[in-house]
Description:
Elements: H1 4-8, H2 13-20, H3 23-45, H4 50-67, H5 73-90, H6 94-117, H7 132-156, H8 162-180, H9 186-203, H10 207-236
Amino acid sequence: MFGLLSGRYVHVLPDFFAQKFGGHSLHLTMLITWDSIMHGTVVFLKHTGWLEGCGVITGLICVWLAARNHLLNWPFAIISVSIYIFICFRSKLYADMGLQFYFLLMNIYGWYFWLKKRNDGDKSMPVHQISNRDIRFSVLAVLAFTLIAGYLLKTHTDAKLPFMDSFCTGCSLVAQWLLARRVLQNWLIWVAVDILYTGVYLSRELYATAFMYLIYIGIAWMGYIQWKKSFLLQQENPEPTPETQ
C-alpha cells in the first residue's frame, strides 16, 4: 500500500495544511509534526533492522515532501517502495509485494507527470460521491480478488495470512481506482485498509512499519475531510455548464 503515499497523499496534504495554517504557523506546525514523527521512528528503529528502517524513513520523508508539494517526494517514494518489495517478500506477504510493483510503476509515472506538468496552472478536478454502480463493482472486485489470490497464495506458496493479505491488496487497488476518479469515499477505504495493514505488520513483527501505517490512518482521514469540504463547496458553487453560460 505504501506507494500510494506519493500518489494519493500528495493530492490532499498541501490543501489541508494551507486551509488550517498560514505563513510561519504552517512552517512551524510542519516542523513540529516532522520532529515528532522522526522521534517516534527512532524509538521503533531500535527494535527493527536497517532495511525496514530505511523504508520507514524514506516513506516519512516522502510524506513531508508531499505535504510541501515538492517534486522530490517521488524519488523517495520509489526508494521506499523498492525496499518494501523485498521486505514483503521476506515476510511472505506476496500479494502486498505484487502491489508494491504496481505502486513502483505509478510512482515512476507520477514523477514523469510532475516533471512534465510542473509549470502548468492548477487543473484540479471536481470531487464526486460514490455511485451505486461503483459500490457494486468495488465489492465484487474485492471479493473476487480476495478469493482467487488468497486461494492461489494458500495452495501454491508459503504465504503468511494469504486471505488477509489478498483482501488488503484488493481494497488498495479499488481505493486507488476510486482516487483516480476523484471519488470522495476512496479515503474511507484507505482508513480501513491502513488499520488492517497495521495489524498485519504487527503480526509479522514489523513494528516500525506498523507505526508508519498508524500515521497513514491520520493522513487518510485528513484527506477525507479535505475532499468533503471541496465537495460541499462544489455543491454551493457549481461550475457553469455550456448550457447555462
